[in-house]
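To the team - nicotinamide-adenine-dinucleotide complex, inputs and output below.
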Amino acid sequence: MTATGRLAGRIALVTGAGSGIGLGIGRRFAAEGATVLFTDIDGNKARTAAAETGSHAATLDVTSEASWIEAAAVVEHTLGGIHILVNNAGICVPGSVEDTDFSAWRRSHAINLDGVFLGCHSLLPLMAKTTEATGLGGAILNISSVSAMVASANFASYNSSKAAVRHLTKSIALHCAKQRYAVRCNSIHPTFIDTPLIDTLAKGADHAAMIEKLARQVPIGRVGDTDDVAWAAVYLCSDEAKFVTGAELLIDGGLAAQ
Ligand code: NAD
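Output:
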C-alpha cells in the first residue's frame, strides 16, 4: 500500500518505538507525513529507528514521571507541540496468579498500565493546546491486547494490566469529549504479532517454531505482522476516524470471534 499523507501536519510521539509494533507504527506515521518522535527506554534503539526516516528520537522510560516531563518539554520546545500519542511500550511476563511474584506483577502494571496513565496525564494538556492552535485533530492510541478480552490461566499480570488499559482508554475518551478537546482516545487489541516480544513466550524455543505454533491458534492461520497494527493505528489517528472515540479494535485474525 502507498502512503498518501494521511497524517500530514501532525506531530506524534510513540513509546517503545525502538522495536516491534512501536517501530512499525513510527515508520508508517512518518511515511504518512507525520513528524514523529521515536521514544524508548533504550535510547540507542530509538535513535536508530528515527534515523531511518529522518525523524526525532528521545529516551523515555514510561514508568517515570520525570521522564515524561522531559519528553513533554522536547515535544513542546523542539517539535512545537503534539497531536498524537501512541502508548505502545509494554512487556509480557507469563505466569499464573500462583507463580507471578509481587515484583513481576508490579513491573507489568508499572509499564503496561502506569505508563499509559502517565503518558496521557503528562501530555493531554499540551495535546489540547496544540490541536486548538493548529486546527488539526489529535488522538491517543493505547496498544492493549486481545488478552484484555480473552484471559489465560498463565497470563495473570498481562491480562490484568491490558484489561485496565482497555477501560482507562474509555474514561480518557469521555473526559476529552466532555472537555470538548479535539483529541480522541481508542485502544487496539492485537493477538500474536511477530516481534521480539514473542520470544518471552517461547521459553528458549526457536522463534520460527514458536511463530508456527502460535499461528495454529489463530483462525486466519497466521500470526500478525507489525503493519497489520500500524495501518489500524494510521486510521485511528487520522481524520478518517474523526467520529471514533472510546472504541476498541481487535486485530486478531478472528481469535476472539470464537
Ligand atoms: P517489543 O518487545 O518488540 O517492543 C517493546 C519495546 O518497548 C522495546 O523496544 C522496549 O525497549 C520498550 N520498553 C520496554 N520497557 C519500556 C519502558 N519502561 N519504557 C519505554 N519503553 C520500554 O514488543 P512488541 O511486540 O512490539 O509490543 C508492543 C506492544 O504491543 C506492547 O504493549 C505489547 O503488550 C503489545 N502487544 C504485543 C503483541 C505481540 O504478540 N507482539 C500482542 C498484543 C499486544
